[in-house]
Each structure stands twice: as structure tokens, then as C-alpha cells.
Design brief:
globular, alpha+beta, 12 helices, 15 strands, nine-stranded mixed beta sheet, 379 residues, ACP_syn_III_C, two-stranded antiparallel sheet, Peroxisomal Thiolase, Chain A, domain 1, Beta-ketoacyl-ACP synthase III
Length: 379
């Protein structure tokens, strides 16, 4: 089996950084009314700026596939060109279409002169790590000599006011308050657009920051817990999900069936606790010592969770000092499947990493509570 190295990393963030006060200029006003929940949600999540592939007329400027391709193109140089690419593996929550697959669409945008293997990982925040795992296993096994792995999102197009105005109008006709449900509005003020990408190869590159992938682990708790974050469905009283296909087309609009929703109570009850349980299991499986970690990159959806995550990790014997944690959420927002890629790219570009240091990646997914983690060694 081959060793596998992250030899290059790149990111693409569309447009300019957008401040909290500008958000509704891009997303629009539901029912022509400023959100009352926005300030509270932003105060708790601690996000200061984010990126949207939108203009101020609420119109998309780029597709997810185009955002992804622009990140990948930054990997190419005289030592690794578009024509050298053998495997493209992409993870996203927010593909531009149900079919064809996201990776096929990205391949079509890139237009290399040859056929390549493509893989798409769909899901939520772990979709990017699933894509990385596929590339890791392919290079490790010798199936491919290199892999371009990507996490990307274009959430903004899901969050524009027109996607919720039908629901608000329906509530008005029912003589109820025309305010969209908190479970939907919560995520309007959390999510951001962008893409991050890694090049995986069998050999490290001279003169570059190289990270050897030691392992990638995944843990799902769907056998214990109901869905917490979902789209294209509606949650029922018994916790089950009713598919969009079981609703009429009229109900799709009136109930914002395709919007991304989150059960915030379930999130608070389990997201940190199960994350600590998963990481403890990974450390036991791989016989790791928490004192050996030099950097901890944990994807979090909100700065609200920072202290709680440290405490939950410490409670299971994984007490990482504050100075070892690396975050960029406040500056780029929550970019879902791309978040861990973009955080690691920034760390690699920072000049801080030294040979033999250990970098731990931790990614929670609140969809139905799934977690991934990975250990990297600086070469």
C-alpha cells in the first residue's frame, strides 16, 4: 500500500467578504420585512463575514460546479497540469441539480482533454471528508496515481427571500404571522459559499508543505438518533421524514419543502456529546495520545460551540489546550463540506507548520449525527 500525501491545497471564495449588515442586501427580505431573528443568531454564531455567489439583485453569479472548478484550477502548475489529473472526487451538500452527479458537472466545466474517474459524495458536512476518503483509498491502493479532492458549497441560492415568500404569503392567508419557521431561518444566517481542494499524491513534493494522511475515520449514530438537519422533506411528529415526492407541487412552495432545516433542540442535545464519543473511539482504535497533537482543526457551525466542544472532549480524556485549536469561522462563515478544506489550506499557507507535527481534523455532521476525523503528519 502506498503512503498518501496532501501535496497542494487551494481555495476559492466568490465575490467579496460580506458583513453582517449587508446580508439581506444579497439574500433579500422575506415578506419585504427585515428579519427579527437575524441579530440574535449572528450574535450567537460569532460570524463576522461570509461569501455569496450572488449579486445585490439576489441573482446567482456562479454555479457550485463553477466555484468548484475555480478552486481546482488553482492547483495546476507546471508540475501538475489539468492533463495529469486521474481522479476527481467531489463532496457537497448543495449540488446545482439532482442529476447528473456534481463531479460529472465539475469535470464538464474543467474540460480536460481526456476521460477521468469521477466520484460524488452527497450529504452534509461530511461529504467533503467522504470525497477525501475516496481519493485517499484510491491512491493508497494504487488504483490511481493522484486524486483531486474537493469540498464545495453554494448555499446562498437556497437562502434567497423568493424561496420563502410563498410560505410567508400562505401563512398570511391563514391569518397567522407571516414569519418563516425558526428551523429554516436559523440557517439563513449561518451558511456561506466557497470551495476548498487538495491534491493527493504518492510522494511528497520538494519545497512544498506536505501532509501525510495517517488515517480517516467515520462514525454514524443514525441507529440511535433521528434526523436533525434535512432538506427536501418535512419532519413528522414521530421523528420520521416525509419525502418531497409525497407532497404536491403546491405544497413544495407553501411549506418551503426544499429549504434546508435544522432541529435546534436536537442539535444542542447531541452534536457535541456524540462528537466527543466519536473522537474518543478513534483515539482508542488508533492508540493515540492527545498530548501528541500539535493542531486541532474542528469544523463548527457556530462559535457558540467552541467552549462546549473543548469541555466535551476534555470530559472523555481529550483535553487539547486552547492554543492548539485553529478556527476561521468568523472570517469565512460556515461553508459546510468545504469548511475543513479551507481551514486546512489556510493553516498550510500560514508558515506555522513544522516537520513531524501532527494535525487533527474533526468534522461533525448534524444531518443524522455522523462524524469524521483524520490525522495528518507534516513532512
Amino acid at each position: 500500500m502506498n503512503q498518501v500525501y496532501i501535496t497542494r491545497a487551494a481555495k476559492y471564495l466568490p465575490g467579496n467578504a460580506i458583513s453582517n449588515d449587508e446580508m439581506e442586501d444579497y439574500l433579500g427580505y422575506v415578506n419585504d420585512t427585515p428579519s427579527k431573528a437575524r441579530a440574535l443568531i449572528l450574535r450567537n454564531n460569532g460570524i463576522k463575514t461570509r461569501y455569496y455567489a450572488l449579486d445585490k439583485n439576489n441573482k446567482p453569479t456562479e454555479t457550485n460546479a463553477e466555484i468548484t472548478a475555480k478552486a481546482i484550477e488553482k492547483l495546476f502548475d507546471e508540475n501538475f497540469t489539468k492533463e495529469d489529473m486521474e481522479l476527481l472526487t467531489c463532496g457537497t451538500t448543495s449540488a446545482d441539480q439532482i442529476q447528473p452527479s456534481h463531479a460529472s458537472m465539475v469535470h464538464g466545466v474543467l474540460k480536460p482533454s481526456h476521460s477521468i474517474e469521477v466520484n460524488t459524495s452527497m450529504g452534509l458536512c461530511n461529504a467533503g471528508m467522504n470525497a477525501l476518503q475516496y481519493g485517499f483509498m484510491s491512491v493508497k491502493s494504487g488504483n490511481s496515481n493522484n486524486a483531486v479532492c474537493v469540498g464545495s458549497e453554494r448555499f446562498s441560492a437556497w437562502m434567497t427571500a423568493d424561496k420563502f415568500n410563498h410560505e410567508a404569503e400562505n401563512l398570511k392567508q391563514l391569518e397567522e404571522k407571516p414569519i418563516i419557521a425558526f428551523k429554516r431561518e436559523f440557517l439563513r444566517w449561518m451558511l456561506s459559499d466557497g470551495a476548498g481542494t487538495f491534491l493527493l499524491e504518492k510522494q511528497p513534493r520538494e519545497g512544498e508543505v506536505n501532509l501525510r494522511i495517517e488515517f480517516i475515520d467515520f462514525f454514524s449514530y443514525a441507529h440511535e438518533l433521528e434526523a436533525c438537519m434535512y432538506a427536501g422533506c418535512e419532519k413528522q411528529e414521530d421523528g420520521s421524514l416525509k419525502s418531497w415526492a409525497e407532497y404536491s407541487a403546491d405544497e413544495w412552495l407553501k411549506q418551503s419543502i426544499f429549504s434546508l432545516k435544522q432541529d435546534t433542540k436536537l442539535l444542542g442535545d447531541f452534536i457535541l456529546k456524540k462528537g466527543a464519543q466519536a473522537l474518543r473511539a478513534s483515539f482508542d482504535k488508533n492508540n493515540l495520545n492527545p498530548d501528541d497533537m500539535d493542531y486541532v482543526l474542528a469544523h463548527i457551525s457556530s462559535n457558540y460551540f467552541k467552549d462546549g466542544l473543548r469541555e466535551e472532549f476534555a470530559a472523555v480524556g481529550l483535553d487539547f489546550p486552547k492554543e492548539k485549536w485553529f478556527y476561521n469561522l468568523s472570517e469565512v462563515g460556515n461553508i459546510g463540506a468545504a469548511s475543513i478544506y479551507i481551514a486546512l489550506e489556510e493553516l498550510m499557507a500560514s508558515g506555522k507548520l513544522k516537520k513531524d507535527e501532527k494535525v487533527l481534523l474533526c468534522i461533525p455532521e448534524s444531518g443524522r449525527f455522523a462524524y469524521s476525523c483524520a490525522l495528518l503528519t507534516v513532512m
